[in-house]
Predict the structure.
Amino acid sequence: MSEKSMLSLQDAALALGCAAGDPHALEVELAHAIEHGDLHANVKRWATEQWEGQQLPGNINRLETWIERSELDAWQKRRQPA
């Protein structure tokens, strides 16, 4: 697995693009997908007392949760209408 193929949850949200939207909304969508098993990620969670910034479902740490680029691409493709 190449280091360049890994994206933080924050970078993955930015890679999806959000010209008309809020990057945090995409982070929440990614976190929901991770929590529901639709998107594989190497997850790091915040302890409640450590929380930084806006919370994500499951206390997922957006800066230290890693998503393989190919996993993100496959998840995005599954979301597109047939």
The chain is about 40% helix and 5% strand. The radius of gyration is 12 Å. The longest strand covers residues 6-8.
